[in-house]
Structure formats: C-alpha cells, structure tokens
Prior knowledge:
- By secondary structure, the chain is α/β, with parallel strands linked by helices.
- The protein has one domain: 3-Layer(aba) Sandwich (Rossmann fold).
- Helices cover 42% and strands 11% of the residues.
- The chain has 9 helices and 6 strands, in the order αααβαβαβααβαββα.
- It starts with a helix and ends in a 49-residue tail after the last helix.
- The N terminus is likely disordered.
Amino acid sequence: MIPVLREVSHRQGIHLQTALEELLPKSPEDRLAWAAENFPGQAMVTTSFGAQSAAFLHLVSRMAPEIPVVFIDTGYHFPETLSFSLELTKKLNLNLRTYRPLSTPEEIESIHGRLWEEGPEGLEKFHEIIRLEPLRRAFQDLNPAIWLAGLRRSGSEHRQQQEILSQQDSRWKLLPILEWSDREIGSYLSSHQLPYHPLWAQGYVSIGDRVTTKRLDEVSDPSQLRHFGWKRECGLHDRV
C-alpha cells in the first residue's frame, strides 16, 4: 500500500512537511478549501453525528458541499443519534452515504454474545464488526485520496498526538478543527444557530453507542464516559 501513497503524493505535488507548514496558520475554512483544491472529487468526510458534530459538518457544507459524508450506522446508536443525523442531513444538505455492518445486532449477539461486556478484547472485536469493516467498505467504494474528520485534541489522549495533516495507508488525512476548544465549538454552534446532539442536555457529553456510553453523572471519572474506561477511541481513528 505504501507505493500507492507515493503515487498520490507525487501526482498531487504535495509533500507532508511543506503542506503542514502551509496549513498550520490557516483557518479551518481555508484548510477545507486546500483539500478541495488539491484533491478535487477525491475527498471523503466521516462523522458519528456526535455531541458537537454540527459545527464541523456545517463547515464542510459551506466549503465543499459535494463531498461524500460517510456515517457508520452501527445498529447500536441511540435513537436520538439517528434522528439527529436526519435533522442535520436535511438542514445542511449533506451528501450523506450510510454504511452498516453485514449483520444485525440480533445476529451479532446470537453468534458472539454481548462482546462489549467481555473486556478490552471483546470490545475490539465488537468495533471490528460494527465499525471498522463498514468503514473499509466505504473506503473501497469511494476510494478517497484524502480523508477529512472533525477530531479535536481535547477529545482524547490519542487525539492530542495527532497532526492536522498526516499520511495514513494509501491516503492523506486532514483534521481541520483539530485545535478548536469546546468553547470555540460552542461559539461556532451559537453563532450559526446550530444544534447540539439532543442527548447533550441530558448529560451525555461524549456520545457513541447506547451500550457503551455513560452520562456524566454516571461515572466517577470522565475517562469512563465511553467503553467503560477501557479506551476512548472506537477504532475508526486508531486502527484504520
């Protein structure tokens, strides 16, 4: 897969360190414009329709409305997440592409049991089935040269180590709002009259699947909000 990456880099005339130096002082809008200019028709966005996802998706809809926005409907989302996805897709006119696991929750549990209760190894297998395999299909179908995501450094320890631009397998990865704080996100949502996830008001400040997500008042440490504290990432950004 490395030779493919080099072909892309050479064809686009982009070198990682030079591009990083160019992108660091730019605004998120300008970073998205850079991606659209350098990778026309070759970009893909992923979203989980999480607590504050409307901010990044609004940026995408303003700067590059044609970009496919991939959502992995795991079968384990809160009903409120699915309704939120419909609301934002309509409000922002997103080019939404939904991917699902090959098996339903009932089929998964009849074969494997409740994997998310079987410790870190069970959770990894659970995420492989419900998230990673569908994402790999999305990559295969859309074949993006650059992957855009709304990760922020405040989200987890793993994300604190991320760069705005990186090379990942056969593609580039751009994180336009990586440095934004919760306050900046809140300000953006307010100024553009955008909604938080409907569960935000109920104390869900980090929202994933209904079987592994806790409210803030249900945990003694914020690290336990997702995946019982075993990990913060669901696998999309640390295993793919």
